[in-house]
Amino acid sequence: MSATPTHGTPLQRRAFLGIAGGLAGTGLLTACGGGTKLGDDGGEPDDAPSFSGGEYDGPKVTLQYWNGFTGGDGPHMRAMVEAFNKEYAGRIEVRNTTRRWEDLYPAMPTAITAGKGPDVAVIHNDWVATFAARSTLVPLDDVVSALGTKESDFIPAVWRAGIYQGKRYSVPLDVHCLADYANTRHLTRAGLDKPPTDRAGYEDALAELKSAGIRNPFWMPNKWPAHLMFMSLLWQFGGELYSEDGTRALWGSEAGVEALAWMREQITKGHSPAQVAQDAQYNAFKNNKVSFTWDGIWQINDLKANARDLTWQMAPLPVIGDRAAVWSASHNFVLTSQAARDDNKVQAAKFFIDYMSKQSTQWAKAGMIPARNSVREQAEVAKLPQTALAKDMEVFHFLPALPGVGDVQSKALELAVQKAVLGRAKPAEALAEGVRTADKLLAENKQKYAK
User: Fold this and answer.
1) What is the SS3 assignment for 260?
2) Per-residue pLDDT reduced to its tens digit, 382-411
3) Ordered structural domains, the chain, with CATH
4) How many CA atoms lie within 13 A of 267 on its CB side?
5) Model confidence over 136-194: pLDDT tens digits?
């Protein structure tokens, strides 16, 4: 997702959710094996010293900090790190390394094993379980306790996403999701002042826009972010992605068929060209050719800076199914097993995470939705356009905490969605084939990540 999602470049947006497939294929995840040695006693990550909050009072340390904020969010993160380094000069120096997400994830495990990786990092929620299963991360229950944080101050789904096998491995920084972007001038041509919120209204608007001369008002991608659209619709129709025990793919259900059929229908009805090239739908929207496009909130700053001839609005996804739901993800701070080899680095890294987690107001300006309810209620954050998407916290849906889930997504779900959208198979057939592949991968993952 230029995911920083933010997601910087088109390549990032295509890659960040499916990198696990490449990682598993090259053996990079298994390279960090069944538990990295953390000290002279060979202790496990759980043995890292506890954190009680307050100021760091140890000797000066240098922390390696990795993240994938290469897009419009990058300057905001750099400013936050620079402010930290200025305030704690002489005690903690944080060296910020920014890499594309598709490069960062494969590099982390082997770099950490070699002692040349990050001490602290930001990763997406769907990578937490994978890295935790390989003992690449250190639990952060003590940091959460010191921060006084609890589920009631967070969007519930994002809070739970950081837990793997009963331990917390991440501190959520934000939430980012899909949104419905609308061309305001086109809305006027359809007699609307804002995007429709339900299926009937949305479909009527698309028909009206075609009648008003907009040849293809809603381009349907077959690649990024098509699978994010499918997941949103799947949840809207009452479906689920995977069984609770992570052994079966459930997205081939009737809800999945309905979701994918609606996506394909936008092409057969003439609302979209038959084949939309990668990122073409977003570029067409920026150039006033498309009336509606579903994309991530990480596009807000890009539209503000680079679409000066476009007048646009942003709204939650319309409810095409029976309930409101939207694919969502989250950036999370994690502490690595590399830092856990040095007690002082552990304390300094936890102090840094503590500090950064309190900067949610500043981070919201990067286009993100703060994970904390209390921060979203602040006046300067409440007025930001993305904050309005969080009025109903139950709409946010996340990938489950399954090790290797990205592998299943990229090799099964995404390919099934693409095949159906392109008309190469009926939705039910494409999903059934994808589920068969997914179930095999899930079984392999059970063995691969077994402790």
Assistant:
1) helix
2) 999 999 998 888 899 999 989 999 999 999
3) 10-173+330-397 (3.40.190.10), 178-326+404-448 (3.40.190.10)
4) 18
5) 999 998 878 876 777 888 878 888 888 998 999 999 999 999 999 999 999 998 899 99
What distances in angstroms separate CA 58 from CA 96, 187, 310, 346, 386, one per listed residue? 21, 59, 53, 11, 39
33 Cβ neighbours under 8 A, 6+ residues apart? 113, 134, 135
Residue 38 predicted with pLDDT over 50? no
Specify the pLDDT at position 30: 30
pLDDT at 41 over 90: no
* Interatomic CA distance for residues 73 and 179, integer angstroms: 18
Alpha-carbon distance of 219 to 12, in angstroms, equals: 21
Q: Write out the two tokens for 63.
A: 């922390």
Q: Nearest 5°: CA angle at 332, between 140 and 361?
A: 110
| Residue 122 dihedral angles phi and psi, to the nearest 5° | -110, 125
Instruction: Report if pTM > 0.70.
Output: yes
Q: SS3 letters for 92-141? A: EEEEEEECCHHHHHHHHHHHHHCCCCCCEEEEEHHHHHHHHHCCCEECCH
Helix (H) and strand (E) counts in the chain: 21, 14
Give me the torsion for CA of 66, 70, 75, 77, rounded to 10°.
-30
Nearest one of 312, 314, 281 to 297, comparing CA atoms: 314
Q: How far is CA 72 from CA 76, 108, 443, in A?
A: 8, 23, 39
- Residue 180 identity (one-letter amino acid): D
